[in-house]
Design a protein that fits this description.
Strand 1 and strand 2 (26-35) form a beta hairpin. The protein has a 15-stranded mixed beta sheet that branches. It contains six helices and 19 strands. The protein has helices at residues 73-84, 102-107, 131-143, 174-187, 204-210, 228-244, and strands spanning 17-18, 26-35, 45-55, 60-65, 92-97, 149-153, 160-162, 165-169, 191-195, 214-219, 260-264, 270-272, 277-281, 288-289, 294-299, 309-312, 317-323, 327-328, 333-340. The chain is α+β, with helices and mostly antiparallel strands. The protein binds calcium ion. Residues 68, 71, 154, 157 line the site of calcium ion.
Amino acid sequence: MADPTRVTSHTGQSRIITTVDYDAPGKHSGVLRVPQSRNDSGWGTIGIPIGVISSGSGPTFLLTSGTHGDEWEGPIALMNLLRGLEPGQVQGRLIVVPALHMPAVQNGTRLSPIDGRDLNRCFPGDPRGSFAFILADYVTRFLLPLSDYNLDLHSGGRSMDFVVSTTSHLLDDRAQLEATLKLARVFGASYHVVIKEVDSSGTFMTAAEQMGVVAISSELGGINRVSIPGVAATERGVRNVLKHYGVIEGAVDAAPEPTEIMTVPDYDCYAFAPRAGLFQPFDALGAIVRRGAPAGVLHQIDGPERPAEVIPYGRDGILWCTRGEAQVREGDPVAVIVTPYPA
Ligand code: CA
């Protein structure tokens, strides 16, 4: 259930103008036109491309990516999907937004070049807020209520790299948790990680969960490049989900191995850099690691004679996430471990 107290301003109206009709059968492409008043364009707007494919009766899937602007497997898979599907192949409705935070995607950055915000920390949004808040509000109050299922596709961005995985949060509602795990198993990534995040407040997935929409997110690669296995897993996973829930025809293309359900049960799973430096990792993604073993060492470029500082793992498990960029600041995670779920 949505918590109405979390919506800070309820005008009933969005400031976003939509050029697509969500209720019209057929395949429609258009934009979400977000007002963006500028010195050089007082009545300026920014268009966020959106595609809707609707036909017959069936569930509505909201498929989004580009919530962060440096994560590419989702946008590529969703653009390919949108181009490749016609209404005659669909029973139900697909609402597809491959580059939700369009200014960040065009800029190739996690954060917005307009208001500096991380869109995935701005939910449930605010129609009177800055660009990212207006956008989050539109998703929360206009797109999620149309939707039965949501896949918001992420990767690690510039700063992180991941084993190809889907993700969701620990949910108190048992039925919703089971429906979420079912969705993840059908998607069929190697891992599905039930995560307790450093900070999940304000995320798209939390907004979807609170609306009762069955939602998963993902980590499909990282380091601001395009993962070939990440794109393959995403394209297969999205089509598997649409097939399983009857939106498109065809048999689910089962992965060679069933999805392993994993979790990040506590903060011992995170290894943080104790200070700035050049991080040399010791293990590849997916390695089995032991508590106390070195995740890597931190070099000081301005003190090459000083011993490199060991950063240990805080838990036994599988190395799920590594640092994307070589240089770290104090407090940056350099490794995240997952363990089998339930912990
Ligand atoms: Ca992300």
